[in-house]
Design a protein that fits this description.
six-stranded mixed β-sheet, alpha+beta, 143 residues, 21% helix, single chain, two-stranded antiparallel sheet, 2 helices
Length: 143
Amino acid sequence: MIDIQPTIVDAIFNAVKAPNAYPDADVTTGFDMKTAVFPCVVIEEVNNAPLRSTDTDDCAENYTRLVYEVSVYTDNLDKSKSEGRKILNLVDETMQGMKFRRVRTNQPLHISRSVSRQYARWEVVVGKPIIDGDRVIYQMYRR
């Protein structure tokens, strides 16, 4: 399996937590309403499917199609739409900088009286890693 989740999580974490962005936000891979710190940015890999037509005869994976969903939870309903939108725009810039294509965005959904959620999905095709000394390089393609 081609796994770039740590790379994606690190990139979004660094963009959101930057001093001039949302340094107090929580960036995580899971959401728990009871312990959440708001705003909360949740990164989930929702699909990691190999492109079978590019597999080798012994079924070695050469390329995979990845789909990531990022949800932004906010607890200030007066600002939830604007704050969530700004964070999603920041995430979108980060994802598009890594050649992901946004395929869906959803307006705020109120999941409780005080918490709302906005989310977007991105997809990309990634080639198997290339090892260059101590660096790992992934080829990413918009599809």
